[in-house]
Specification:
This protein has 501 residues and is of the alpha/beta class. It has helices at 20-28, 34-41, 57-69, 82-97, 118-124, 141-149, 187-199, 207-216, 223-237, 242-251, 259-276, 279-287, 291-323, 346-357, 383-388, 413-428, 450-457, and strands at residues 4-6, 74-77, 102-105, 130-134, 153-157, 171-173, 334-339, 361-367, 370-376, 396-399, 403-409, 437-439, 477-484, 490-496. The protein contains 17 helices and 14 strands. A 5-stranded parallel sheet has the order 3-2-4-5-6, with helices on both faces. Strand 13 (477-484) and strand 14 (490-496) form a beta hairpin. The protein is globular. The two termini are 28 Å apart.
Amino acid sequence: MQSIALRPAPSAPVFPGLPAWLCRLLAARGVETPAQAEAFLHPGWEQLLPPEALPGVAEAAALIRAARDAGQRAVVYGDYDVDGVCASAILAQALRRMGMDTTVYIPDRHEEGYGLNRAAAEKLAGEAALLITVDCGIASVDEVAAAKAAGMQVIVTDHHRPGPALPAADAIVSPLLGGYPFPYLCGAGVAWKLSLALIGPEARDVLDLAALATVADLVSLTGENRAIVALGLPCIQQTCRPGLQALMAEAGMQGKVTSEQVAFQLAPRINACGRLASARIGLELLETKDPARARELAAQAQALNQSRKEQEQQVIAAAEKQVQQMDLVAIRAIVVCGEGWNSGVVGLAAGRIAEKYAYPTVALSRDGDVCVGSARSAGDVDIYEALGQCQDLFVRFGGHKQAAGLTMPAENVDAFRQRLSQAVGAQTGGRVPSAPIWCDGELALADVTEETVGLLFLLEPFGMGNPAPRFLCDSVEALALRPVGQGGKHLKCTFRQNDAM
């Protein structure tokens, strides 16, 4: 049974004109002054740092302009998730607008796996002189070396954690290097900042894609990310992209576009392309200018997403059977493994298991002697750090605090289970994970007014780092409960607390 706990927060300052409950919410999000409160409640362009402040942007922009002036061709090397697809589209558009011949290469999830790979780098060397990675490459030391040896200039743009050594690229653009004030940009956010440096205000035309990726990649919706998403959501709603228009129609989206709609309706459909088929479907969907083609691609994404749901449920059901055989008191992390599980959905299954049990979870798909999998964190556990304690067991791995991907020999799975549990236990002090229902404070039913709802809207967009507020309303009497919606999945309630209803 889950317990209810009030989320710890610093002493709330008093911000003029704001109720105490809102001051508490702002304080919990690191807001300390009236100026910061104003910036949080009204995000705008002025909150974005200059693109040249991002480490590596100036060097990368100079190399790109020189290559353009020399008539060289560029290839953008992306990733197959929403972040990687959006980052690819963003940077490719910027390069083409500045007159550079540009192609995009996205590896196949099932055949090539995540990140830059040697075979692709060597093949692309015969097609382009400049290789620019987006949303990957920061840990690809050997692969970058191979591309350089094949005669290419290489620029790495990435937001994932670097490994022990940086690749010997000609430039590296990363918010995790050089003391950048906001280290939480996603891959598309990094690509967008580079685009701003290359083509200036014209890059605002792709803010819809930067916002879409920022929400989808589950990075902190604070600081620059909050501004990117707040400014970008209206751009999605008013987009001129036939692909996004068709995708929103498939999803049944109407009216104001919210971060929740992006996260649960748009992102899964684009992700399904790379998970079950080819991410190039999603890329073409975002880039096409043909409404008829856009509708065709959106229908493909819709069908793939439905298939993804079905396969995900199959993997979750099989994984649940394994979890039920585990001694959750003795372990601190869950590792499930299945022969032939679709590697495109194991990350989703890991996320569902982690959410249900509050244990960091790794789901592995076994194909013969090799396992490919995804990890999802739970609570405050840094899953990347925990996996780093096991990296000698892997062929490769990469990621960040909340999520990671890995490839390993199947013979190492048992040792991995034990060592990951130990690594997570070291972070938690040996405590058994728990999943309390966190509340941001108490709120009387009489205070739930239209004004309260209006002020809550100012806290949007919600997401990682800025969760939708949850309040505790105690001693409430339920007067009426009625299932509503498709399949009765929602509940319409009438409550009373003292004289308030």
